[in-house]
Amino acid sequence: MAMVGLSVGSLFAQGTTADGLRWKNVAGNCFWSNWELSVGGGVSYTAWDKWGFSNQGDFGDNIGWTADVSATKWFNPIVGARLQIVAGKLNASNELHDKWDSNWMYPHVDGVVNLSNWIGGYRDDRVYYAKMVAGMGVSIVDMGDGGSAGLAVNMGMINTFRITPRLDINLEFRTMVSSGHDLPSQMRVDAGRFGQVYSMTAGISYRFNERGWNRTYSQVDVDTYIEAIEVLELGLAASVQSEEALAEQLAKQTEATKQAQQENEQLREQMKNMGTASSNDEQVVTSSAIFFNINSDQILTRSEASLQLLKQTIMEAPKEQVFHIVGYADADTGTAQYNKTLSERRAKAVYDYLIKHGVPESQLKWEGVGSTENIFPINSNNRVVIVQ
Fold first, then answer.
1. Are 12 and 76 a contacting pair, CB within 8 Å?
2. Strand stretches in the chain, DSSP E
3. Which SS3 state, helix, strand or coil, does residue 39 take?
4. With left for phi above 0 and alpha for psi between -120 and 50, is residue 290 left, alpha or beta?
5. Which of 139, 159, 211, 348 has the greatest count of CB atoms below 10 A from its CB?
6. Is 186 helix (H, G, I), strand (E, B) or coil?
7. Nearest 5°: CA angle at 246, between 242 and 252?
């Protein structure tokens, strides 16, 4: 019977790839992993008629003791098989209050189902497990001339509490049912009636070798990973092929940077000249050129540092001194009228920024002159506001 139970369990273990099963994507361990040895002890109640509800004397007269030892093999997180030997003392009585006691042994093999892993899915950190057991074996009562033996079936529930990675505490409720002819000789009954032993035991289990289960990957996951690796390899190949193009682009960028630095130097010189030769005795405030993108009056983030310096210059100037904000536009884009309006919007944007940051209105005035006056040789540099 034990060999049959282990064989059936092996068939269940082979079904771990079935789509409808909860233990899909969990790899089975070797045969010597996921074994448990358990011992326990408790009390039993013996009933011999009408499932224990007939008149069998006082309740306490039918209470005996029981002990068990078992070995359990788990084939996957849900299905296992158990070989258990139960022994103890059966006490029984009848309606006349006659009492008997008998030695009893019940070796049997069970199928075990972990309901927690089945319903809730397998988890490594689970502390409580509810497990159902059912099986059959041989009930042996009073070995010797007055004894009896026969097939019996059993079922029950095990409440398991994990206390360490290898130790569990078990609280098991179990019912064994046998033919009435297999009861102790004093209480054997007619055919059609059954003997029952209800028991409750507490014990401890020790788990050998691997306790948990390793997760596997589905074919879809594997294909996805392979595809991602191929994409990365193609990207790497493309990067290698474009190395020369990137080097050429970097050289062009370096040249453009040098050109921009030269133009910057020219702008600084022109600003100095404007500061000393501007009309109406107005001088350009140093570093006050606020540049804009094409067709835009939005102040750029990189311009805010210059505006903060300009604000500080104005705040430190005499209160009666007025600063003139002049907006420009380049002549290569837009009509003259449009560029006039655009330059005014740019001057107003700088004006509003300074007012918002605490500069008195009495010290500011603004205007836009459009593209009629180019102040820099490079026309795109005329998308600017100058403060005098």
1. yes
2. 26-27, 35-47, 63-74, 79-93, 99-114, 128-141, 148-162, 167-179, 194-208, 214-215, 290-291, 323-327, 364-368, 384-387
3. strand
4. beta
5. 139
6. helix
7. 150
